[in-house]
Specification:
The protein is about 45% helix and about 20% strand. It is of the alpha/beta class and about 325 residues long. The protein is globular, with a radius of gyration of 19 Å.
């Protein structure tokens, strides 16, 4: 085996049912110069036994207590020593050329992150994410979510951040800006890291031939409190801490309008309490937001104008209008 170029970090919590197919897909990669680190985050199933018995070549790390997604990922990132590192969800499996295709863009020295093309695991394998976009209004979105696979052929390879289901990073870039923010636990943690990388001058690009299949929402119930509380809280923390004062002033009206529209939608879905609790938790995180602003200020290598260009401005058409269409469609169904 050649000297390792990359490390694949798999955070795992009770993912035993997914691990066989995932690890088999990694064993079938077209190149073998990589290591595997499985970080078991306090699983109560037999994940640990399975990895020990079936994949002795993989490094198995166990946490003393459940750290959450960000904490488990950071434990794996800290243990990686290769030039590149990939974060890969336990509820995924990957195409044979997943690794080789994702490493090619790193030949450009300013690429700090590469997003795989993440497809929904169930046929017909529509797109889950072609990289993440971040809007000036404060919402993140999965590019091309729900679209046919062919749509990825014509999309701009430039993307704001890599979806955490399958995200590759230059280790030197992670060492510069730090790992995932463990205080966020999950949701927006990949966008927040991508934001810091952007401020530091690194680019993120989509590798459309790096295919990952994702069992969506296998870790959290999409209808549950946890998902909607964390999403509401973390979205607010990211907007207030990672936009510069000038950009916050510039886009404050869009942010307020987006919040009001979100709140109305959450009322309609019966999730207003989780939404408001998340926003209140963000308000109580003012000290953490101030500290994060200081970190971002120290990292900044590009201008406000450049960051503004990297964000998505047509948030109404990309986020609000499609949701309105779906709501109106359901309202008119017989």
């Amino acid at each position: 085996m050649a000297e390792s170029t990359a490390t694949v970090v798999i955070p795992n919590y009770n993912g035993r049912r997914f691990l066989p197919r995932l690890l088999d897909s990694l064993a079938a990669q077209s190149r073998d110069d990589f290591r595997i680190i499985v970080v078991d985050d306090g699983s109560t199933d037999d994940s640990v036994r399975f990895v020990r018995e079936t994949r002795p070549d993989a490094t198995l790390l166990t946490t003393p207590k459940n750290l959450g997604f960000a904490g488990a990922c950071n434990m794996g990132l800290a243990a990686a020593t290769t030039p590149f590192v990939a974060l890969l969800n336990n509820d995924t499996h990957v195409d044979r050329n997943w690794l080789s295709a994702a490493l090619r863009p790193f030949e450009q020295s300013d690429v700090g992150a590469v997003a795989s093309l993440v497809l929904l695991a169930e046929p017909p394998h529509r797109i889950d994410s072609a990289g993440d976009a971040y809007t000036v209004a404060g919402g993140a979105m999965k590019r091309l979510h729900g679209r046919p696979v062919d749509a990825a052929r014509s999309i701009d390879a430039r993307t704001f951040s890599a979806c955490g289901a399958s995200a590759f990073y230059r280790r030197a870039a992670i060492e510069q800006v730090g790992g995932l923010d463990e205080a966020l636990v999950s949701y927006y943690e990949d966008v927040e890291l991508g934001f810091r990388l952007n401020w530091a001058g690194w680019r993120c690009v989509l590798a459309a031939d790096s295919i990952c299949y994702h069992h969506l929402s296998a870790s959290y119930d999409p209808r549950g409190w946890t998902m909607h509380f964390h999403s509401a809280r973390n979205a607010e923390i990211v907007w207030w801490s990672l936009l510069s004062p000038a950009l916050r002033r510039k886009h404050a009206a869009a942010h307020l309008a987006f919040l009001l529209l979100q709140f109305a939608a959450e009322i309609g879905h019966g999730r207003a309490r989780a939404f408001l609790a998340g926003k209140w938790a963000a308000l109580r995180s003012r000290a953490a937001i101030r500290r994060k602003r200081e970190i971002v200020h120290a990292l900044a290598r590009i201008s406000d104008a450049e960051i503004n260009d990297r964000m998505t401005h047509d948030w109404w058409d990309l986020i609000v209008r499609p949701r309105l269409r779906r709501l109106l469609g359901r309202a008119t169904e017989p």
